[in-house]
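Quick note —
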Amino acid sequence: MHLFNLKKSLVSLYICLVALLAVVTFVEHVRGTEFVEKYVYHTVWFCCLWGVLAALAVVVLVKRQLWRHLPALFPNISKAMEEGKDPSFLSWWEP
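Predicted structure written out below.
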């Protein structure tokens, strides 16, 4: 058993961030955008929270070898690769 479960930590941090963003949305409605930008969005702790979430996501992706399944997460890219097209080809970008 691992002392530090990365997947649970990632999910917990993500839930906390979503809850925080929900609360901040209501605070923004009451106090205004400038207040929320100054005291939440442009603070060091908020940027660090996003950074830790991104770092944990990368660690979980690598440790659990989920990078092997990335084409399944992006079906249009996967389909283009199967058809032998350039992976940067995305059908929804066409005019």
